[in-house]
Amino acid sequence: MYRFLIVVEKANGNYSAYSPDLPGCIATGKTREEVTRNMHEAIEMHVRGLLEDNLPIPEPHSFAEYIAVSL
Length: 71
Fold this sequence. Notes:
- By secondary structure, this protein is of the alpha+beta class.
- The chain has one helix spanning 32-52; strands spanning 7-10, 15-18, 26-29.
- The chain has a domain at 7-52: Double Stranded RNA Binding Domain.
């Protein structure tokens, strides 16, 4: 099993997502749930393509944290 971080961003009227560890692997959707589902499918297709082409699967190195700032 592979686990990849995805970043979801609110755009004008929809959402977009990408994975920092899989350059070029992106998805969009009208809701957060839809973009997450679409990104899951995009990552599966991306990884399958790498395997079919006998290319290495990138090791996930990205992580995310929230930083709280008191002003």
